[in-house]
Write a structure and sequence with these properties.
Two copies of one chain form a homodimer. Chain A is mostly helical. Chain A has a domain at 6-89 and 127-142: Winged helix-like DNA-binding domain superfamily/Winged helix DNA-binding domain (Arc Repressor Mutant, subunit A). In chain A, 53% of the residues lie in helices and 5% in strands. Chain A contains six helices and two strands, in the order αααββααα. Chain A has helices at residues 6-18, 26-32, 37-49, 74-80, 99-125, 128-142; strands at 53-56, 62-65. In chain A, helix 4 crosses helix 5. Chain A is elongated and about 60 Å long. Chains A and B meet through helix 1, helix 5 and helix 6 of A and helix 1, helix 5 and helix 6 of B. Chain A binds a DNA duplex through residues 1-6, 23, 25-27, 35-39, 41-42, 45, 55-63, 84-85, 88.
DNA sequence: CCACCACGTATCATTGATAGTTACATGATG
DNA sequence: CATCATGTAACTATCAATGATACGTGGTGG
């Protein structure tokens, strides 16, 4: 099944933004994500509404982080994206009155609910600063890796 | 995202089959699942190949359970369906060389891998007999519930 | 032995979500 | 005030599950 990559993409972008001086335009971001500017604006809109980023129009405008990475968890971004369904498999409701179907869905539903709770707890425990620190470790480990699009090592 | 309901459906069907005398035709099963016979054959094909059910052609033919419910776990059925992706959200690979993307995907990937392991372990620990027992409990609790399609209380 | 029944399977249409695109309006900057 | 950037509406593209049609194949029973 087709997988939703918005969470991954937004985390990617936010970390880049934190290492970036000044606003990043949707155009620049879209190149990083190999997509196009409208998709970026659409997806970032949710984060803006929750106050994680700010957008500025006109010359020199673009997107700016509005909170430090230490204050943003993966769970926050997941919620900002509208809490999309995490699971690709789910219960059937072909015959809601059927007791067999109810028994099956109760078992599956409980298993998925527990897995979701675990996943969300994990998301809530990881901040973007943690991911940025992992990036820094990878960067140091490789010395001077190639830059497919602009990375911003810890300098600025 | 659209959710794969095949696992739920197959569990539903197998339990009904265990309470059924003689083969159940794809036509009968399709009515239980509010779908059509071809979808049933397509989905059951995987279970047949793994030996959980048998199919018989001709007059009086249809589908028959080939193992007791105690010998079949939810995990078995999941595998028989081709182990479809469990998650609806996943990593982006827009820029595989980007160290930021790698850090993001490592964190997300680990979280999802752990959740998947938990889910599969749970699936492996539940047999269809457990679900059937839950059905029996629900049946007894309600006395004589309505039958939207044929249920088979513990008699035969 | 042959008519019928049920599975087996190829092929195409439908669905529902993200993702991509085009077009145009709005606001800010220099 | 021309230009740049976001905001958004309205499409189209894509992908996998699902649904539907058609036809082939093998058993069964009359």
């Amino acid at each position: 099944m087709r997988r939703d990559s918005r969470l991954s993409r937004m985390l990617h972008v936010l970390i880049h933004m934190s290492r970036h001086n000044g606003p990043a335009t949707s155009e620049q971001i879209s190149r990083m994500l190999a997509t196009n500017p409208v998709v970026v604006r659409r997806t970032m809109a949710g984060l803006r509404d929750k106050g994680y980023v700010r957008s500025e129009k006109g010359h020199g405008g673009g997107w700016v982080l509005d909170l430090p990475l230490t204050e943003i968890t993966l769970l926050d971004i997941h919620k900002a994206l509208g809490e999309p369904t995490l699971f690709a498999v789910g219960p059937a409701s072909d015959n809601p009155d059927c007791l067999v179907e109810q028994a099956v869905n109760a078992a599956l539903g409980q298993a998925f609910a527990d897995a979701e709770a675990q996943l969300l707890a994990r998301f809530g425990a990881v901040t973007l600063a943690d991911l940025a620190a992992d990036f820094d470790a990878r960067y140091r480990a490789l010395g001077s890796p190639p830059w497919p699009h602009e990375h911003y090592p810890a300098e600025d």
